[in-house]
Amino acid sequence: MRLATLNNGTPDGRLVIVAPDGGHSANASVQTLQQAIEQWDMVAPQLAATAVFPDMIDPAAVAAPLPRAWQWLDGSAFPAHGDLMDAVLGITKPKTDVPLMYQGMSDTFLSPLADARFPSEELGIDFEGEFGVIVDAVPMGTSAADAMGHIKLIVQINDWSLRTLAGPEMKTGFGWVQAKPVCGMAPFAVTPDELGDNWRDGRVCLDLLVDWNGQRFGAANGAPMAFGFHELVAHAARTRDLVAGTVIGSGTVSNANFREIGSSCVAERRGIEVVDLGEPKTAFMAFGDDVRMEAVDGAGHAPFGVLHQRVVRA
Amino acid sequence: MRLATLNNGTPDGRLVIVAPDGGHSANASVQTLQQAIEQWDMVAPQLAATAVFPDMIDPAAVAAPLPRAWQWLDGSAFPAHGDLMDAVLGITKPKTDVPLMYQGMSDTFLSPLADARFPSEELGIDFEGEFGVIVDAVPMGTSAADAMGHIKLIVQINDWSLRTLAGPEMKTGFGWVQAKPVCGMAPFAVTPDELGDNWRDGRVCLDLLVDWNGQRFGAANGAPMAFGFHELVAHAARTRDLVAGTVIGSGTVSNANFREIGSSCVAERRGIEVVDLGEPKTAFMAFGDDVRMEAVDGAGHAPFGVLHQRVVRA
User: Fold this and answer.
1) Most CB atoms within 10 A, among A5, A11, A171, B174?
2) Which residues pair with B210 in a beta bridge?
3) So what's the ipTM on this one?
4) By the 8 A CB rule, do A95 and A277 touch?
């Protein structure tokens, strides 16, 4: 089952069921995705039974599937990326057996085609292509094994980042605020079964195709996470109850062979250049640049649809 | 004007106007504080004109004035506390001229008399008494001077902290997730004018009386913040629009003469012991312990009411 949210002038939009062709939809039996996830086990069968797809979707009317959430916790679960970024930022992190995770802003997720507004190009504007899951209510102390069943929907996220601010904020120990502005979200939230065999061990085993100004920049696969999403959910829930609609992210999708397949963010490319060439060669994004992200399976199907955002001056 | 929220079985509760005696209230013209703050300039005069106070408040029915918020950003604006904690945690932070701030969980604020649930005493259970402000919508890039006008309400917060987890999470650079579980909030949100001369330069110049198991533990004043709340709001809004209802915190209230007047958290007391005695003597909280917090002016008036929470096993 694929879900989308259409702009209707309200902050949470109108939830729709999306046809297999991705171009048609029908109103859901509840108004919003937040309402659906709060009573998922009752609502999901009703949604799945919605079989009529009368309305053409206007891509410009598509909001983020969850246009705002009560909580957004983003991991950094791809070790290929994390190890490289630590070296480049000059951060020495203690080696631990727990996931890395920060709390980010969740009051807005940008529509998949929305411009991303930033005050200055000097801040090191960067995209981060990643996957995320949306859970129903998860009680404090839930184990990773039990957390798997709380993963109700999977999404694709562009975690906009301002790299000039990121290093200094990390060094405070307080984590990121200014360096992590509002994220974007691809059009469709999908149930795990929609991914078939490509949802394995709590990982989204799809290639995330990232194009920057029309040029292929990365095609990393979501499989090699050091922790599955169920483990990230359990980590998040260790000392708090997670409210229904909490979004948990994977961090930038990254594979060890990033020199061949590319990266899901500019910072990683620059990090490779620092290691290989002694200094970064690739500049961060400029106003007017755009990034396109689409996760595809072996047959070229894109379950989450296309995110395509342009960078503009705020 | 003082506002409170009464539990009515909904997540956002029922907004009421509180009489000067603090014991009576009348229903507000909008249902929730979130609705009020989203259209504050129109709603506030209606709320202020509500002059009838027919109903006794049942303290057990009082929720946090904002039982959940779209965003909670907590500063650390008291240098007496920050400098001490850095030394104790072994963190060397670069000296900067910008405030310290992290993003915390905002999907729930506990009621002023609610038990606080934690999985284990081994996690270093601690309270943090602080002040916070609630803003209306603040556009990205708003200056500190302009931010002052966006501060519509002031609140008193207990930022529960798990100290055993705090140091390791800081060292990752990602900030706190597990170390910062759900906060509590004192009963009343007040407009700045309600504090009179005790709202000065964006600071809440009241003594925060903190009692642990019935013993006075701290009485620090909110005045000596290195940054006023208007500056914290501007910092938060540098690269993002702040949605109406965003809560911005001061961090633990702390004064340089903490050896005389005490502290607003156990960690600070332990830090003083480390400095003075070579090791911490005061244990963190145990299950069954309680903490009471009440900010008072020179005449003993407590504009935010009393927060009184007990620590229990989750």
Assistant:
1) A5
2) B218, B293
3) 0.96
4) no
